[in-house]
């Protein structure tokens, strides 16, 4: 059983007394910004706020934001700016901007939890004439977080900055006098708009400009509050395509920046393919999903949703406008991918004539760009695109295919149903918000009930229906292993058993309980859905199991044949291995014999060589060195002998010539020194003579 209040919003006193004072036309009286939950109190005419995250663990503090000027019109919508600095409350007859107080304190609430805070208000539009407020949205690129776009029923789009009217742009034909019902009856009244990702160009008047692919790049100005002239010059180069929807289903694009005086209005954009089903005759709302390329969702009061891609036009087509706008060709076309029909309440006996018609309100999911939510008088739906993931794979170049499979259907989940019978009292969704950290959604009903669900548990991931692409038996015979690797069989069975019929949570108006007949009819319808849908899936699973058994039997027989062939190959390989082993041994023996013969040949050849060996060469070189040394020593000895003989003769002649002279006597010490010197010389001469004698003996030997 699914828990219907995961975040305990029903216990918050902020919603007390809601059903007693709720106007019939109010549908967006509650919203959420980060961790703050806002709700308009019709009894006290103030905006109440509470920190929903802090309320999960302790008693929350409810703050009342009192407006300095009480609105004189019925409030139907509450919205907070992108930076949280401003908020506005609007109705069909007026709109008031609220300057939000500063936040501080432990819980991040306003003025540290002050119970009542008086806020400055700016009365932007409060008109008593026939012109009504059709839609109002904050501009995502406002440098002061205060630029507000307001669409009126007289086909004018106005831009305000802190309550000051900056520009008035014409987005459709002018009404004749004050007769707005005439334009509304023809479907020429603009009923909704949304802002697409930024378009960057040096010249905004250029008809062919390219989209900036990321809307967050231009939203960085929300955190950069610069008011210099340089910043204003940069903003003149940025334009935002404003997608406008008329009641007859025509879509127009107004390309304008914050400082654009005369914008570029284009349209109606061409629907491709041009089929009647692609045009909504009773359109009610529009939303832009910032995918790549941009996805446009158009809703009709009958519950039909059109999913289209906004692509650049290759061939510019001329379009018609009145004299107050610029005449330019279309830069884009709308390529309708699919049309889906929502179930507005449970149908009795599957009769489509019992369907109700009511306005549809669209909200994009800031966490997942492949998903958005749609709520209405009969409940809440969650829609997940099937083609966005294929586009991402193609743009990221993750596939080598030249074509994109755009036939993947979107997943529709009926999350909450507030109407089960045609004559039951309407229990409409009057407030909706998307929670983050943790991820979830909440819905406020006109009966005062509050539903909060976790999107992690309720919103299941997109699962491709594999039953539409069942491979044949012949295909399995050739590619069964590849198929098993791509899609495991258990996942395939789970995909077949997965029901495409969502079971919504019932939250009916308890003031008038259903009759026994209505309850019985509801039970019978549920049983019939079970028979038609679930049992058929079980039959399909049974057929798949039979097919799987046949395939596995075929694979088993094939594997047996392959095993027999493997055994035969094994025996043949063993025989070849034995032969190769014998041949290997013979080769080794022959190799050893050849090595021995080579060694013998090498030894014999070295012995029979005529030249001397290297050792003999070295010995001969050594002898030559010794001979040169001996020759040198012999010459030295001869020189010494000659000198000795010359000295002896000189000494004898000197002694004879000096016999008559007086003999000179030397001191004893000098005489001993000379004798020692002469004796040393004699020993050296004798040693040299001995060495010469030895060398001569060696040479003679």
Task: Write structural notes for this entry.
The chain is α+β, with helices and mostly antiparallel strands and 701 residues long. Helix content is 32%, strand content 25%. Strands 14, 15, 16, 17, 18 and 23 form a six-stranded mixed β-sheet that branches. Strand 12 (156-161) and strand 13 form a beta hairpin. Helix 7 packs across helix 9 (516-607) and helix 10 (614-657) packs antiparallel against helix 11. Mean pLDDT is 79; it is low at 202-236, 318-327 and 458-485.
Précis, in short:
The chain is an alpha+beta fold.
Low-confidence stretches: 202-236, 318-327, 458-485
Biggest sheet, in brief?
Answer: 6 strands, mixed
| Count of discrete alpha- or pi-helical segments spanning 4 or more residues | 11
The general outline is elongated
The percentage helix is: 25-40%
Report the end-to-end length measured between terminal Cα atoms.
124 Å
Radius of gyration (CA) equals 52 Å
Class from secondary-structure proportions: alpha+beta
Query: How much of the polypeptide forms β-strand, as a percent range?
Result: 25-35%
What is the arithmetic mean of pLDDT?
79
What's the number of extended β-strand segments? 32
GO molecular function, one term: structural constituent of nuclear pore
Protein name: Nuclear pore complex protein Nup88
Pfam family, one: Nup88
Keywords: mRNA transport, Nuclear pore complex, Nucleus, Protein transport, Translocation, Transport
Keywords for this structure?
single chain, about 700 residues, alpha+beta, 6-stranded mixed beta sheet, 5-stranded mixed beta sheet, 11 helices, about 25% strand, Nucleoporin_Nup88, protein transport, mRNA transport
């Amino acid at each position: 059983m699914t828990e219907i209040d995961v975040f305990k919003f029903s216990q918050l006193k902020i919603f007390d007394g809601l059903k007693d004072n709720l106007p019939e036309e109010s549908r967006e009286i509650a919203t959420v910004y980060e961790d703050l939950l806002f709700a308009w109190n019709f009894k006290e005419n103030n905006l109440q706020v509470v920190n929903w995250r802090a309320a999960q663990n302790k008693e929350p503090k409810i703050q009342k934001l009192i407006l300095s000027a009480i609105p004189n019109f019925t409030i139907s919508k509450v919205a907070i700016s992108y930076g949280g600095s401003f908020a506005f409350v609007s109705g069909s007859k007026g709109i008031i901007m609220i300057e939000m107080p500063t936040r501080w304190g432990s819980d991040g609430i306003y003025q540290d939890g002050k119970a009542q805070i008086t806020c400055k208000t700016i009365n932007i539009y409060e008109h008593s004439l026939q012109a009504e407020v059709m839609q109002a949205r904050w501009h995502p690129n406002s440098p002061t977080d205060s630029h507000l776009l307001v669409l009126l029923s007289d086909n004018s789009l106005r831009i305000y900055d802190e309550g000051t009217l900056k520009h008035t742009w014409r987005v459709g034909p002018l009404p004749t006098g004050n007769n707005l019902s005439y334009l509304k009856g023809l479907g020429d009244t603009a009923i909704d708009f949304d802002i697409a990702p930024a378009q960057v160009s040096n010249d905004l008047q250029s008809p062919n400009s390219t989209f900036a692919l990321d809307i967050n790049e231009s939203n960085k100005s929300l955190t950069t509050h610069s008011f210099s002239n340089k910043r204003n010059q940069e903003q003149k180069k940025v334009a935002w395509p404003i997608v406008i929807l008329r009641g007859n289903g025509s879509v127009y694009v107004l390309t304008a920046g914050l400082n654009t005086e005369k914008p570029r209005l284009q349209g109606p954009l061409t629907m491709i393919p041009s089929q009647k089903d692609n045009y909504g005759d009773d359109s009610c709302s529009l939303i832009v999903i910032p995918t790549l390329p941009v996805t446009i969702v158009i809703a009709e009061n009958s519950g039909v949703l059109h999913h289209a891609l906004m692509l650049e036009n290759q061939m510019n087509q001329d379009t018609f406008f009145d004299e107050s706008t610029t005449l330019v060709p279309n830069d884009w076309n709308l390529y309708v991918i699919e049309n889906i029909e929502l179930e507005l309440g449970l149908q009795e006996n599957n009769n489509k004539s019992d369907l109700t018609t009511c306005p549809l309100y669209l909200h994009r999911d800031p966490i997942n760009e492949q998903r958005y939510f749609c709520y209405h008088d009969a409940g809440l739906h969650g829609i997940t695109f099937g083609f966005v993931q294929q586009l991402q794979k193609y743009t990221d170049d993750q596939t080598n295919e030249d074509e994109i499979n755009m036939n993947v259907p979107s997943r529709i989940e009926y999350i909450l149903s507030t109407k089960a019978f045609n004559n039951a009292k309407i229990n409409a969704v009057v407030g909706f918000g998307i929670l983050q950290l943790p991820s979830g959604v909440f819905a406020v009903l006109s009966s005062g009930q509050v539903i909060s669900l976790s999107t992690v548990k309720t919103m299941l991931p997109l699962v491709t229906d594999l039953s539409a692409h069942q491979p044949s038996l012949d295909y399995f015979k050739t590619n069964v292993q590849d198929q098993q690797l791509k899609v495991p069989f258990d996942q395939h069975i789970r995909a077949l058993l997965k029901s495409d019929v969502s079971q919504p949570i019932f939250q009916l108006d308890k003031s008038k309980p259903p009759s026994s007949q209505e309850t019985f009819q509801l039970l019978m319808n549920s049983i019939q859905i079970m028979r038609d849908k679930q049992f058929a899936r079980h039959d399909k699973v049974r057929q798949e199991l039979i097919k799987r058994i046949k395939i596995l039997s075929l694979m088993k027989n094939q594997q047996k044949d392959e095993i027999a062939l493997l055994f035969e190959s094994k025996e043949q390989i063993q025989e070849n291995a034995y032969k190769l082993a014998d041949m290997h041994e013979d080769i080794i023996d022959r190799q050893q014999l050849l090595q021995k013969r080579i060694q013998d040949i090498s030894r014999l050849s070295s012995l029979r060589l005529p030249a001397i060996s290297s050792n003999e060469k070295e010995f001969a070189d050594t002898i030559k060195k010794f001979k040169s040394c001996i020759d040198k020593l012999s010459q030295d000895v001869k020189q010494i002998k000659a000198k000795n003989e010359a000295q002896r003769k000189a000494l004898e002649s000197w002694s004879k010539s000096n016999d008559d002279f007086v003999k000179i006597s030397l001191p004893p010490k000098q005489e001993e020194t000379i004798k020692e010197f002469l004796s040393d010389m004699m020993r050296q001469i004798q040693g040299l003579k001995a060495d010469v004698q030895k060398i001569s003996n060696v040479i003679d030997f």
